[in-house]
Write a structure and sequence with these properties.
about 25% strand; 8 strands; single chain; 3-stranded antiparallel β-sheet; alpha+beta; 5 helices
Length: about 190
């Protein structure tokens, strides 16, 4: 737990205890919605956003490469690629799932974030409006970004867009920017 909290950020964020927030989920950036409504016949020419049958999802999951199946809330499967941005429908489900975590409990927040990171193959950077206080009791309510990414400094600011831009700039400067996905939990 101590190492997880330090990952939240070396700025004020590392000293914070979350006190709670909830709300609807929103995501940063856009990716076109899937254009394929029926599963392809073979796995040869899959594109991000293609729907898969259960059998195709099992087959794709065993292959080597950057594409993988993502099981959506309704039980259906969609193709994602860890080297490309997530489809918008997946980003929305990821944000909604993380939004259900108890934001006053860091363990719950990180557990949900870790689950979604594993499901997508992405290191998620979560932007969320949080009320917190420093160890010396000073209140702080702001948009903040946190991630399990090694070396992630944490960011805070007056708007989700400002913090998401800071986080995206940080991710873009890394050796493999495609491994990161910025997700905004709006509330």
């Amino acid at each position: 737990m101590i190492s997880r909290i330090s990952v939240v950020g070396s700025i004020t964020l590392a000293l914070l205890l979350l006190t709670g927030c909830s709300g609807a989920a929103e995501t940063a950036g856009t990716t076109p919605t899937p254009s394929v409504s029926t599963p392809p016949e073979t796995l040869d020419d899959l594109a991000v956003g293609d729907m898969l049958t259960d059998a195709q999802a099992k087959q794709l999951n065993g292959q080597v490469g950057t594409q993988r199946p993502y099981q959506q809330d309704d039980g259906s499967y969609i193709v994602i690629d860890v080297a490309q941005p997530l489809p918008e429908s997946v980003r929305q489900e990821v944000a909604a799932s993380i939004a259900t975590s108890d934001s006053s409990d860091l363990a719950s927040f990180f557990r949900k974030t870790d689950e979604e990171s594993a499901a997508t193959g992405k290191t998620l950077i979560v932007v969320r409006y949080m009320s917190a206080s420093t160890l010396d009791g000073e209140p702080l309510t702001a948009w903040m970004a946190s991630s399990a990414a090694t070396g992630f400094p944490g960011f805070h600011g007056a708007s989700a867009e400002e913090v998401a831009a800071q986080a995206q700039a940080w991710a873009s400067a890394t050796r493999d920017p495609s491994q990161y996905e910025v997700v905004i939990i709006n509330g």
